[in-house]
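Recap from last week: sequence in, structure out.
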Amino acid sequence: MTAVEDRPQMLAEEFERIALAAEREGVRMEFIHGRLGVKAVPDGDHDEIIRWVMKQCMQQRPDLWLYPERGLRVETYRKGHAKPDGVLAPEGSFAGQGEWADADRAVMVVEVTSYDTDTDRRDRDEKPRAYAETGIPVYLLVDRDSCEVLVHSEPEDGQYVSLVRRPFGKTVVLPDPAGISLDTEPFKAWVR
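Predicted structure tokens:
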């Protein structure tokens, strides 16, 4: 990457103003690694996957809550902003915080891939790096293209050092501090 490509497109404060205006028009934006991105609007199957993950979290970890679409500041460098599909955190973690909250209380973030051209770069490359840099303990990616779940954990030096992949239909253990066994069998019904 050249010095020009590595330079942020704008300041984080500028992004926050643009994102707020875009949200009023139904467009969701993120700012990761200094780059502005548009997040696809979820479809019904995407919503069902998040509902199922939320249900499993509530049953197994009633002390935690899966906050949908919680805006987080996700990078120690360049002040990135992301809206994961879900953020698992202790109840009350984001009280009093605005649209973009500190990620220090996040136990896990959840993303479900969208059927758009940007999902590879965004969900499989940029977000794991940003979440690891921020120190979020677990990143769960539900990949509808490959029909598998990827569990990234153990953030160290800006990257996750552990990656577990399981095909839909298998149970996957989300490591501590999440501490959840996630049955992925239902995911098979929610892919194209």
